[in-house]
């Protein structure tokens, strides 16, 4: 059974949404502020969040940014403002859809079902998530600490090989064969090192180290966090 968290400060609307989704067989929890939503988000597992933009205190955008740093759960924004910049900001933060008030309950339910179908169609092995780094290898999307980051096709290939073989030492020869030989390109160890260093620059900081250099041999995905 799907579980949904509704964060909306309009109590009548919140209760109406809870009732509507409950009638469809969803398990529903309601929160009336971002802080209340955070408590539920941390203590209970949800398949979807419906989130009002204009919340008292911290707004929906701030909640979305915070939530993306915790775990990847689909989010649909609700807003009374039909402004393009709001929609763009929501999508930039990782929202999966956006609905402007007033809206049809039927439309919202269909959007919710479509988002769940899209996200649940991804196999677990095609997603990497550790609370800091999130990668979807099917849709080629990634986030670092809740902020979207862009990888090149080669960087996605490197990430996939590293993550599928986490903890193992991958020699220069193995990496060169798996990443480049299949495309008929000739690439040397220097080009490999350049790509690995570029990748490190996108995903690592002072507290998060993922790729260790094994001198004279190759590299190893460690996923270390200080």
Describe the secondary-structure layout:
Elements: E1 3-7, H1 11-23, E2 27-31, H2 34-43, E3 48-52, H3 60-68, E4 75-79, H4 84-92, E5 97-100, H5 105-120, E6 127-129, E7 133-136, E8 141-144, E9 147-148, H6 153-164, E10 169-171, H7 172-179, H8 189-203, E11 208-214, E12 218-225
Parallel strand pairs: 1-2, 1-3, 3-4, 4-5
Antiparallel strand pairs: 6-7, 7-8, 8-9, 10-12, 11-12
Task: Explain what this protein looks like in three dimensions.
- This protein has 226 residues and is an alpha/beta fold.
- The chain folds into 2 domains: 3-120, Response regulator (Rossmann fold), CATH 3.40.50; 151-221, Arc Repressor Mutant, subunit A (Orthogonal Bundle).
- It is 41% helix and 24% strand.
- The protein contains 8 helices and 12 strands.
- It has helices at 11-23, 34-43, 60-68, 84-92, 105-120, 153-164, 172-179, 189-203; strands spanning 3-7, 27-31, 48-52, 75-79, 97-100, 127-129, 133-136, 141-144, 147-148, 169-171, 208-214, 218-225.
- It has a 5-stranded parallel beta sheet with strand order 2-1-3-4-5, with helices on both faces. The protein has a 4-stranded antiparallel beta sheet with strand order 6-7-8-9, with no helix packed on it.
- β3 (48-52), α3 (60-68) and β4 form a beta-alpha-beta unit.
- α2 runs parallel beside α3.
- The longest helix has 16 residues, at 105-120.
- The two termini are 37 Å apart.
- The mean pLDDT is 84.
């Amino acid at each position: 059974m799907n579980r949904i968290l509704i964060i909306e400060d309009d109590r009548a609307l919140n209760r109406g949404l809870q009732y509507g989704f409950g009638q469809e067989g969803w398990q529903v929890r309601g929160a009336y502020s971002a802080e209340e939503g955070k408590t539920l988000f941390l203590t209970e597992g949800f398949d979807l969040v419906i989130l009002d933009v204009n919340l008292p205190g911290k707004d929906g955008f701030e909640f979305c940014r915070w939530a993306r740093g915790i775990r990847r759960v689909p989010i649909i924004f609700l807003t009374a403002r039909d402004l393009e910049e709001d929609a763009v900001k929501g999508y930039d933060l990782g929202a999966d859809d956006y609905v402007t008030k007033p809206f049809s309950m039927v439309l919202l339910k269909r959007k919710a079902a479509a988002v769940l179908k899209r996200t649940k169609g991804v196999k677990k092995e095609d997603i990497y998530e550790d609370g800091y780094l999130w990668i979807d290898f099917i849709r080629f999307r990634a986030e670092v600490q809740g902020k979207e980051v862009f990888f090149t096709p080669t960087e996605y290939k490197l990430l996939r090989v590293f993550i599928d073989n986490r903890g193992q030492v991958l020699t220069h020869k193995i990496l060169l064969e798996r990443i480049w030989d299949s495309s008929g390109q000739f690439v040397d160890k220097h080009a490999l090192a350049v790509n690995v260093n570029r990748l490190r620059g996108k995903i690592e900081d002072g507290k998060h180290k993922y790729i260790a250099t094994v001198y004279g041999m190759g590299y190893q995905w460690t996923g270390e966090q200080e």
